[in-house]
Amino acid sequence: MTFELITGLALFAFVSSATPGPNNLMLMASGANFGFFRTIPHMLGISVGFMVMMFAVGAGLVQIFDRFPVVYTALKIGSVIYMLWLAWKIAHAAPVRKSDSAGTPMSFLQAAGFQWVNPKAWAMALTAITVYVGDGGLLLLALAGMLFAAVNLPSVTMWTVAGQQLQRVLTNPRRLAVFNWTMALLLVASLYPVLQL
User: What is the pLDDT of residue 43?
Assistant: First the structure.
C-alpha cells in the first residue's frame, strides 16, 4: 500500500466516519443518556464490527449479492425495519439517573452486529473496497480494515463526548425527550438514501 493510497484511505475513513450517520447519531444519544463510560462497548463494537464486516465483504461476500440480488433486497428491508425500531427506542428512552441500572446502552456485540444492517456502513465498506483495495488481495484488505478502525475510533469517541456534554443541558426531562425525538427523527431521515435505491 503506497503512502498516497494510505493517505487517501485515511482521509476517506475520517470523513465518512465523522459525518452524521446512524452510528454517530446513536452514539450521541447514548452519550447523552448513559454517559461516556457506559457507551465505550458501543464505540468499540462499531470500530471492530465495521472492520470485520469490511473484511468479510471484500473477501467475497459481495459476490453473493451479485449472484442473488434478492439477498441484497432482503438485507435492505431488514435494515430499514431494524433502524425504525432503533429510532422508536431512542425516541421513547426514559431519563437515566446515575443510580439507575434499568437503562442499558448498546453492547459491544449489538453494535458490531448493527454494522451489518447499517446502510452507511455498507456504502463506506463498498466504496473503500472498490476505490482503495481493488484486487490487492486479502492482506491489503485487512490493512485497509485496520486503518479504518484506527481512524474510526477517535471519530466515534467525538460523537459520544458531544452527547455526554449535552447531559448538562438535558437535565430537564422535557429537553431530554425533545433531544431523543430529534435523534430518532434524524436516524429515520438517514434512511432516505437507502429508500431511493
Answer: 97
Domain region containing 33? 3-94+105-196
pLDDT score of 69 more than 90: no
DSSP 117-163: G-HHHHHHHHHHIIIIITT-HHHHHHHHHHHHHHHHHHHHHHHHHHH
The DSSP secondary-structure symbol of 57 reads I
What CA–CA distance (Å, rounded) separates 179 from 95? 11
Q: Residue 111's pLDDT band (boundaries 50, 70, 90)?
A: very high
What is the torsional sign of CA 129, 134, 135, 136? negative
Contact partners, residue 79, CB within 8 Å, separation at least 6: 117, 118, 119, 194
99 within some domain: no
- In total, how many domains does the chain have? 1
The answer to whether residue 100 is domain-embedded is: no
42 inside domain: yes
